[in-house]
Design goal:
Elements: E1 5-10, H1 14-25, E2 30-34, E3 51-53, H2 58-62, H3 69-80, H4 88-102, H5 105-110, E4 140-142, H6 146-163, E5 167-171, E6 173-180, E7 185-193, E8 208-221, H7 230-235, E9 249-250, H8 259-266, E10 271-272, E11 277-285, E12 295-299, E13 305-308, H9 324-332, E14 338-344, H10 345-351, E15 353-354, H11 361-364, H12 368-376, H13 381-389, E16 393-396, H14 399-408, H15 417-429, H16 439-447, H17 451-456, E17 472-484, E18 487-488, E19 495-497, E20 503-509, H18 531-549
Parallel strand pairs: 1-2, 1-8, 2-5, 8-20, 9-17
Antiparallel strand pairs: 3-4, 6-7, 7-8, 10-18, 11-12, 11-17, 12-15, 13-14, 14-17, 16-17, 19-20
Helix pairs in contact: 1-6, 1-18, 3-4
Length: about 550
Amino acid sequence: MAYDADVIVIGAGLAGLAATAELVDAGRKVILLDQEPEQSVGGQAHWSFGGLFFVDSPEQRRMRIKDSRELALQDWYGTAGFDREEDHWPRKWAEAYVDFAAGEKRAWLHGQGVRFFPVVGWAERGGYDATGHGNSVPRFHITWGTGPGIVAPFERRVREGVARGLVQLKFRHRVTGLGRSAGAVDTVTGEILEPSGIERGEASSREVTGSFELRAQAVIVTSGGIGGNHDLVRANWPQRLGTPPASMLSGVPAHVDGLMLGITEAAGGRMINRDRMWHYTEGIQNWNPIWARHGIRILPGPSSLWFDARGKRLPVPLFPGFDTLGTLDHIMKTGYDYTWFVLDQKIIGKEFALSGSEQNPDLTGKSVRDVIGRARADVPGPVKAFMDKGADFVVEKDLTSLVRGMNALTKEPLIDEAELRREITARDREITNTFTKDLQVMAIRGARNYLGDKLIRTATPHRILDPKAGPLIAVRLHILTRKSLGGLETDLSSRVLTEGGGVLPGVYAAGEAAGFGGGGVHGYRSLEGTFLGGCLFSGRAAGRAAARAVG
């Protein structure tokens, strides 16, 4: 029986596009499958802020940031916390990825036309010791054009492959099985779904109109994770984080369902680190949702006061932007699945950014004029829209009214005004001097020692209850599903491994489906800016390895 292509790639997200682009460069014939319609090409990457992790980049050096491969690897290992036997390949992928981020990654992307915002962001700051979790220095580089800007060159390369007769794009093809006609996995079967004209990200029909069977010498699985499937998230929820949240928002569309992971596992692939996952704690309900339970993540600066559901301030070092999963762990022990930011207009105007390409039209549209306009505005337009229309925002002139509004948003009126006033007033007293015992105030002053934070990300220290800084703002924060950190175990050639440690012949995996490489390159935690880069690095590796194997 003849092959339909050299390689079949399952999933037209960023990892699948990167793998297909490499196969095209090698002159291989590819069939690219995806269950969603063509308008969703690029997958989750399209919706992203476009953050990329670089080490010792020109942007860092211009901002006087001293970075190195050794410091980045120290941060990665301290953050990942590798401690399992199955972390063998994730460790190797981690070292390879840091080498990539410190080496050819930026030049490789720059050569394809990708450009970067000049101010480097500082995500996941940690707040522990030098060998603990977090980025020691700013490394979060925003793509000029955000997510669509990073998807564009790879989609262009794939469509050039279509024009050359090397690539067939088959959308609305949902894979249901992987099979063997000889020794290796070479057969992909599934269902053809009815055409759909929905907008990108909206739920598409699951009406089946036919079936398909395709054969190739190799199969690359790039189908993403489980973040849109809350049942699967809860089933894999780590015991160390207690009972899963009763209520969660979705940071990804519903089609991020994890089904292909189970199919690959049934074919003999090994899934590892299922309980490692990355969910944000600063989720807010999208006032203009695209998919079900659509949440947006606030990318906060360090100044908002963070309170649990009962109005108790979160402990050190769980400040905004410091330790995502440490904060999640603490929240789950409170017995509630929501928290509060309390701040003022001076803080929100400078420190709130919203994750997502659609929430950053200036950067996504590559408009210098609009970026300057955002910097000059009292409150950026997308943030102001949430202040005016967001279901989780309370905006009031005085604390009494603010607390009344906060309690009106929850089932129980848990916030005591006197206690909240005491906490805020105590913090405000610490602002009088340039030195302090309040470690969050110390962190704010430390952040402003970095020019990038001082310019655009950290408000001048001030009293939150100062009427001149008002109005006061409270934001109810939800748990927001996002990424799977575990996945299909792969070697450094992206070949999927079996339970016995051997290679599953003919099958490769990349992107989130492979835990962004190895089955869990991030370990327990991420340094941020590493998800898109992980898709690119592992997708490139899978494409190149498969091209060699079928040559």
